[in-house]
Specification:
The chain is an all-alpha fold. The chain contains 6 helices and 2 strands; from the N terminus they run ααααααββ.
């Protein structure tokens, strides 16, 4: 129908934790990518080869921003599948771990000292020291928020798959015999009749009368003997 509004399915994520973690990822990725881009710019101007530390950090931060933009579009306009987001955060976590490992390995001395003029000689050196520490701090933040988002994805994915499970219904056993409740037989003799001979000729039969009276004692009612007389010629009692 033209002009009909397309509604999306509700998100399985908890809104507060989902958006807080993504905000932490975004801020960390923007700061790390800005600091690393600053270093890459001056290294390229001096014709230095880019170290693997900056390559991993720049890749992790840029891809984090791209993944957040794509997943945000899916979250607001469609439904963000937890499995899709889980795959993204798992890959980003590996990149953040590699970047942080190279960063702490190569700048361990810088992180263990204060950014003073005694250690760095110039104001430019102090600025570089502070940028390294800021990059390290937000790299750790980016890794922690990405790992937390990964755990949230795993939890949400398990919850959605558990809600989709169902127990198989057992079909009724049609072959099972149904018990038949039979009423107890009356303790008195109901009728006495003459049997036909073996040739099937019934012959002349006289009206007969039940030898004993039938007394119906159920519910306090007693039937008189005259009601038990039967005339086969007229088919009447």
């Amino acid at each position: 129908m033209a002009g009909a509004k397309i509604t999306r399915n509700p998100s399985p994520y908890s809104p507060l934790s989902f958006h807080l973690l993504r905000l932490g990822q975004l801020i960390s990725a923007l700061i790390v990518s800005s600091v690393v881009s600053f270093f890459v710019h001056y290294l390229l101007l001096e014709h230095y080869k880019l170290p693997w530390t900056f390559i991993f950090l720049l890749t992790a931060s840029v891809l984090t921003v791209v993944a957040l933009l794509v997943s945000s579009a899916l979250y607001h306009f469609r439904t963000l599948p937890p499995k899709y987001n889980l795959t993204n955060n798992a890959a980003l976590s590996v990149l953040w771990i590699l970047g942080l490992s190279f960063l702490t390995w190569n700048t361990g001395w810088t992180l263990g000292h204060r950014c003073l003029i005694v250690n760095w000689r110039t104001e430019a050196g102090i600025m570089v020291c502070r940028l390294y520490k800021a990059c390290t701090a937000f790299t750790i933040t980016g890794l922690l928020t990405t790992l937390s988002a990964l755990l949230l994805d795993i939890r949400t994915h398990r919850k959605t798959t558990q809600l989709g499970k169902y127990n198989q219904m057992h079909e009724p056993d049609t072959k099972r015999s149904i018990p038949i409740i039979s009423s107890p037989m009356p303790q008195h003799e109901m009728y006495s009749s003459q049997r036909a001979d073996d040739t099937g000729d019934l012959g002349d039969q006289k009206p007969y009368r039940v030898q004993e009276s039938i007394e119906v004692q159920h519910f306090g009612y007693s039937a008189p003997t005259e009601q038990t007389r039967y005339d086969p010629a007229h088919g009447m009692y």
